[in-house]
Amino acid sequence: MSSDVTSLIDRYCAVWNEPDADSRKELLEAVWAERATYTDPRADTVGADELLVHIASIRMSRPGAKIVRTTSVDLHHGVARFGWRVVEADGTPLPEGLDIAELSPDGKRIARIIGFFGPMVAI
């Protein structure tokens, strides 16, 4: 199941990188559960349409940037976590982030993403 979840997460990341709005919607609908939520420090969305608006806004503010998964996908009890970073169009890497993904009961779609920006700070 771990490779299936890794594939699911990679397909989710591909949504953020897709320049065409219609293709982006199609990609998201394949991985996003109905009424799934996405929350990060700048957004709190419900459903695919709200997330697509947010993604379009981010893409407009960072033309040509890509989301790159930077860690393996860690999974237990239907919850996955993975590291990622934005790489600007000129190749400049931005600080990494961390997403927590709650999967649908069948494990085939994402029911919730909670995203954090930047590295964790040691105490």
TrEMBL record:
Gene3D superfamilies linked: 3.10.450.50
InterPro entries per UniProt: NTF2-like_dom_sf
Full protein name: Nuclear transport factor 2 family protein
Protein species of origin: Aminobacter ciceronei
